[in-house]
Amino acid sequence: MSSASRAMLSKVRRLVPPMLEHFHKGQLGRVAVIGGSADYTGAPYFSAMASARLGCDLSYVFCEPSAAPTIKSYSPNLMVSPILRSVASISQTQKDHGASGEELAKPILDMLPRLHVLVIGPGLGRDEVTQKQVKAVIEAARKSDPPLPMVLDADALWLVQTDPDLIRGYKECILTPNVVEFGRLAKSVGLHQSSGDASKVCQELADKLGGVCIIQKGPVDYISQGRDTTTSDFEGGLKRSGGQGDTLTGSLGTFLAWRQVYHEGLWDVGDEKMDRAETLLVAAFAGSAITRECSRRAYQKRQRSLQASDLTEEVHEAFLSLIGEPTEQQDKKSNL
Fold it and tell me: A cellular component term (GO) from this record (predicted)?
């Protein structure tokens, strides 16, 4: 492990809340995954379960009605609400009157004050009604008090590349593009990539988007919020099965929830408190590190048969190995 990674993990540990008797249900994370459609039911499940396995208290899925029974059948631990609309699921009256995104999104908008974080994109699809609804949710999340942190992936990134101003300047947001999605995002803001320093290009894109945090996924993950840049180069597995990125989005959701209560002072975090730009980068690094460790562990056991569900089963052990419970932090630090 590099000295830079050790330093980042020490910061990650400062974001992890201790398990204290006086905490009540929901304080250590209320994360909602927005996604799931008729064709894609696994992605929101893997994301929400990663968030739950990492340690958030309440894990929600807001999905399209046709997806809800299937996702519910995967696990009774998730709260699954069929309140994401599509062309097929809205009423004829709404079609005839051209319902606005805000009208369609009202059931989700009503939930926002109860949440710490939104994860938008797993299994979302590109249905025009769904995309209009999600756009309204993102706009409302930015205006909420306090602003609601978000993770955007998959078809939520497609929405952003068509309208970069949707998230421009929103410093409570993490984007998780792969190499193709990164290229499209860069093109959408007029950033011409070269064969130079990939980490520098990542920082330039984050800066052009006004300080959002970007995790550029690849053989190593480059991470920047436009001010600072770091690299997550932990060993991963060699199998590239679909759905592994959903472990990343769910893990990021929990770390962003812990980041939120860190800044709220839910527990004693000491005198040297990190600012929000730094904790955004730290949370992004943490999600990347956990996911890569899950992939490594799962691949050791499953080799080429590895599936996304195998990563889900490794989340807790990956957390203990890389970060550890707060009561163990000093011992872990001495062993690095």
Answer: cytoplasm
